Q: What sequence folds into this?
C-alpha cells in the first residue's frame, strides 16, 4: 500500500479571527494532496482532465482534532480507501509533527467532460491499476 | 421547530476550471448560514465571541448532489439537529430553486476564549434555550 | 452618470488573525460588484461569457483606509472611470456607513474565448453603449 | 540588494471558470512571499506579531501580464522598494519559467497591537536594519 505525502505551510490569509487556520482550507489542502498523489505517479491531474476524465467530489468529511496555526508546516498523508470502476475515496491524515490534527475523506465519481459516468476500469485501465496500488493490501488482492 | 434561510449568490471567484462552484465554498456558505441563524434570533456571533463563547468546528460533512454555477442564487435552509450542554450540530440544505443540490452538517464544541469546554446550559442558559427552538420538536420536549 | 450599489456582509472565513477582513477579499467583493453592475443593466456576466465576451483583469489597485470587521455590512459603489473599444476601468468605493474604508480600481481588456482582443464598440455595440452610461458625464459626451 | 524567492504551485481551488488562476490569489501569494522573506532572515512573522509589531497592508497593486494555470509552478521574487521608520513597500515579480507573468507592490504601515503607528527604527532597530538589506543598493547607502 502506497501513500503520498504533501507538505503545506499555513498561509496568513488562511487564518481567521479565532487565530487558527479556517476549517474551509482543509478541503483545499486535501485537493492539493490529491494533485500531488497523482503527479507523484506520473498522472498530472490536468492531463487527466485534458484526456476527458474528471473527478468531481460527491462527499467530503473532516474531523478536526487540533487547530493549525499560521506558519505551521503540516504534512498530509494521503491514501485511497476505496476504488471501483465508478468511484474512488481518498483518505487524509493531517500531521503537525507527530500529532494527527485532522482526518478526512473525499469521495469522487469518475465522469467525462459531459459530466456523465465513466467506467474507469474499461476506459482508463492504466489509471485504474495505478490508483489501486494505493489501496490497503488486502483490498488490493481482491481486485 | 424553527429554520433559518440564507440567500447566497455564487461569486465568480468561487468557480473553478470545471465551471462550477468549488466544493470548499460550501463550508464558507454554511458558516454564513450559521451567522444569519444566530443574528436572526438576536445573537450576533461576534457578540457571542465578545462574551467569551466560541464554537469551533469539530466535524464537517457535505454531500454534493448537483453543481452550483456562477451567478446562481442559492437558499440555505439551516436547522439544529443536536444540542447538548457541550455541543451543537447544525444541518444544512442548499436549494437551487426547488432542488436540493447539497446537504451538510457541522458539529461544534462550546469553548471559552482559552479553548476549554464551556457548559452552555449553565453559563449561557438563554443562548441554550434560544438555540433549542431550532431542534426538531420531539427532541425539544426531551430537554 | 450611473452608479451601481452592492451590499456585502463580511464572512467569518474572510477574517484573519489580525481580527479584520483579509485584504485579498476586496478583489472578490469588487468582482461581485461588477457582476451586480452588469446584472443591473440586464447583462448577466455569464451571458456575456456565453456570447464569447470575457473581461480578464489586467490591473488591480486597492487603497485600504480602515479595516472591515466580521458581520460588518459594506456597500460598494461602483462606476466606470474609463471605457474604450478595447478596455474598461471600473472604480470602487467601499462604504461602512458614511465612511469610505477602501477605494480601488480594476482594468480589464475585452477578449474573446480565444483570449484575443475584441473591439467592443464594433462587436457588441449595445454592451458598449450601456457601459458608457456609467462614465462621468463630461466623458460621456466625448463619445 | 537581497531578494527572496518563493515557490508556489497553483491549486485547483485557485482556478476559476475562465480556466486560469483567479486574480485574487496573487495577493495571497504575495503574502506568502513576505512570510518567506522574513522567515529567511530569521524573523518569523508570527514572532513579530507576538512582539507586538504588525504590518497591515495599506495599498496593493497588481499588473497581470499572462495567466497562470492549474499545477503551474511559479516563482515569486520579492524585494523591498521603500523603507522608512513608518512604512515599507514590497515589490514582487511572479515568474513562470523565464517569463514575468505578474508584477505587484504592497505598502504596509508599522503598527502595534493597538493599531497605532510604531517607529520601526526606534522600537525594532534590528528588524529595520535587516529589512534595509533588501533595498536597492543606492537607497541602502542613503540610510
A:
Amino acid at each position: 500500500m502506497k501513500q503520498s505525502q504533501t507538505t503545506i505551510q499555513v498561509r496568513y490569509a488562511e487564518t481567521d479571527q479565532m487565530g487558527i487556520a479556517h476549517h474551509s482550507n482543509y478541503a483545499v489542502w486535501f485537493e492539493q494532496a490529491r494533485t500531488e498523489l497523482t503527479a507523484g505517479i506520473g498522472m498530472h491531474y490536468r492531463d487527466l482532465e485534458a484526456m476527458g476524465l474528471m473527478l468531481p467530489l460527491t462527499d467530503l468529511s473532516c474531523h478536526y482534532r487540533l487547530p493549525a496555526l499560521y506558519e505551521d508546516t503540516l504534512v498530509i498523508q494521503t491514501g485511497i480507501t476505496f476504488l471501483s470502476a465508478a468511484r474512488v475515496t481518498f483518505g487524509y491524515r493531517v500531521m503537525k509533527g507527530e500529532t494527527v490534527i485532522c482526518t478526512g475523506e473525499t469521495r469522487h465519481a469518475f465522469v467525462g467532460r459531459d459530466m456523465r459516468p465513466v467506467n474507469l476500469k474499461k476506459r482508463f485501465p492504466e489509471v485504474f491499476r495505478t490508483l489501486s496500488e494505493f489501496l490497503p493490501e488486502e483490498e488490493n488482492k481482491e481486485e
